Amino acid sequence: MADEMRKTFHKDLDEIRHDLVRMSVMATEMTTLAAEALLGGDLELCQAIIDDDDEVDVLSISIEDRCFRLLALQGPMAADLRTLAASMRVNSDLERSADLAVNIVKGARRIYGQEIPPRVRGIITMMSGEAVRMIRLAMDAYSEVNGPLGAALHDIDDRLDQLQVEFVEAMFEAHGAEALPLQPAIQLALIARYFERIGDHAVNIGERVSFMASGEQPEHPGAARLRARRGEPAAVEPAPAG
Amino acid sequence: MRSVLGWLMVLAVVAVSAVAVGVVIGATRYRRRLVAELSEVIGRRGVRVPARLHDQVQLINRLATEADERTAAARATEERLRGVLEGFPPAVLLVDPAGEVREANREGERLLSGRHGDVLVMDAVRSLLPTVGAASDPHVSGHVDLAGPPRRNLAIDIRYLADGDRLVIVEDITERRRLEEVRRDFVANISHELKTPIGAIALLAETMCDEDDPALLGRLSDRVHREALRVGSTIDDLLLLSRLESAAPSPVQQVPVSSVIGEAVDRVRTAADARGVTLRVEQADASLTVPGDRGQCVSAVCNLLDNAVKYSDGGAVVTVRAAASDGSVVIDVVDTGIGIPARDLERVFERFYRVDRARSRSTGGTGLGLAIVRHVAHNHGGTVAVSSREGEGSTFSLCLPVAGPSVSA
Predict the structure, then answer these.
(1) Which residue of A221, B21, B323, B383 has the smallest Cβ count within 10 Å?
(2) Which residue in chain A is spatially nearest to B112 when comparing CA positions?
(3) pTM of the model as a whole
(4) Is the ipTM of this complex over 0.90?
């Protein structure tokens, strides 16, 4: 009887994991298409992406619901509990990433008809590629419960941050040369920020994966600073992995 | 005493004979049963049953050997078929009525492992599976387009098999789609490139018929002249291209790379000066040569330089570099111009392909330059490649093997 329940628990957990991978693919597809819609001025594609997000939302709600159900009915422990808790966080990170793709196309609609300077276009293409790559790496780490890869995403994110800096420079340059009016420039700056935020969500997923694998909470620089100000000793060793 | 012994002997003989008769009768019965069973075994094989036991045993021996051979042959065939299935580029899955995958080739396994975009492909397959059946539709197809990167188009084909299983084939048709697009665009583009200037000439000539203002006539005839030159150069390039395509082997000679670059640079110098673009040649080894056709090589490098100059801003530098590398001579033409969007990169070598139609009219190319470069490279057994970032410039690399075209031909 107990064994039977464990079996369904793991089957349900596998389904949740599979659905999260599915959701990540939906989010990365939306991100790539959002960059295409933005660069190609494709309003139809913009609308299609906005519609796609509804499917992501439905899936996300269903995953969250199933997570709560498992948590309440099965009372999982140790690695199972961590996986379930991490999956709930991954769920919201992916859902937010898809929302960011929607934000990108909404921005694209606002600047419809505005010619985007070539250098800015180039950086947008790279940012979108980089954001998609990061989500994929994060989900590889999640599927394989690869803690080190999850932790490495923090460093991989530097590339996307660097691109955003370059992007802002290119915008100042184009605006200075009067190739880009202020209003679309601001919209584009926001769009770059959205791509960069998708990368941040990938980093979050990576942190959840390393927690899943090791049971150690990622270090929060803010918490460390607060302790230092209060003169408290450094962080206590986290609870051993179960 | 003697008689008792005699009686005993007689009794013994009788007893032994009785036992012997019993044994013989038993053996005969056993033998008969054996023969019957063997006959039945042989009979089931559809072979004529020999009368003698010895022959029957031999026959069974032969049948067993034959069966062994057949099993081995069947195993070999199975292995061969599996090899064919594994080597088959599309993903192949055999799904039983319960929806469980029974067989999968290597590509199929990859699809099932459900990484990244494959998850959506399997979702599409699973949603199509219930629609296939003996009663409903024995053959269903669908497709999935993935934005990637890389972009992928996949065709799904599901067939209902006689034993209730379903055969799923998932094929990557990205390249096929691309080629279809190339063909469609070429037909549309060639008519556009030829009809536009001819239409303009017809209209201009018609206007000239009703005009007698010399200043206006001068302007109109000037336009007619320009448009005629435009068609002329398009037709010249088309002819050059078809000559290159027919690939009649031209006399192969050792062509000095420095003289090719020198002549190409001379040809585009006027255009470069007019735009204020500086041409820089970097060649470490002046003695480099490649076997091939000098005229073709010059026209290839010239086309690359011409593009680099056209898409650079005033004050920019276009660099042409030549160096030996791994059995080839690589000629790089590097500009810092507007660059090429990633989605257009693989298409720029197509005939008449334009990244930006609005701009191409003002730069006035025929749209065939890069197609010519690609054909020259091909005729020399080499390749041409491009790397580019929008807004930062492009690098075209023409790679010609030192061993000559015969190697790849």
Answers:
(1) A221
(2) A18
(3) 0.70
(4) no
